[in-house]
Sequence to fold (241 residues):
Amino acid sequence: MTAKGELLYEGKAKKVFRTDDPDRYLVEFKDDATAFDGLKKGTIRRKGEINARLSALFFQMLSRRGIPTHFIEQTGPRQLLVRAVEIIPVEVVARNIVAGSLAKRLGLEEGTVLKRPVLEFYYKSDELHDPMINNYHIAALELATEAQIKEMETYAWKVNELLVEFLRPADLVLVDFKLEFGLHHGSILLADEISPDTCRFWDGTSGEKLDKDRFRRDLGGVEDAYEEVLRRVEKLIGENL
Ligand code: C5P
Fold:
């Protein structure tokens, strides 16, 4: 049993606690949901449990396929034990299909399959509302070195490839997703979470949205969508993990 220590950080969806081991943190996933830069607030029943479980399963799948992650083990229904990383304040977004802010920014129709996938960086800053930045900004602001940027790009492309393939048999289309990375004794590890809060998943047959867009856009059936993603991914696990 790892004892939960001091609360280190509380975000919109998660709390991070120290443990008695300085090299390990406990991450607790909350049911709270926010959207539009915190303007819309709510709760999604069982979200904490579902996102903790899905993140654990995705991190395990990815680490078995060569992606270094912060994940160590799941220690409770909504709790993960992770390596203590210092989060690089850059959100890495990968996109396969046009949706969300890309549709707005470039006037593209949501659902258009991109001729080639796209990577974007955003500066993690609440005051600045997470502006989009490029690799020059990242280097100039010393958010990460050029080598670290390259490494994050390489991992993001690989994660995209692995997740798309992994989800295909579950008839889940990976539209886009956001990753965060952290530094652990100088090495880059995939961190944060991978869940319907941070990915867009569409049903491959009906096109139905099975992610946080149901909450953002008041589409109803939010809880059912999260449960459905978990049900499908758990079904894959025996076959694929
Ligand atoms: O809003 P946008 O279209 O830029 O989001 C792209 C992807 O990144 C979506 O899957 C969204 O859930 C995720 N994202 C996130 N956290 C943010 C911004 C975007 O998880 N702060």
User: Anything to note?
Assistant: Residues 91, 93, 99-102, 130, 176-178, 198-200, 212 surround cytidine-5'-monophosphate (CB under 6 Å).
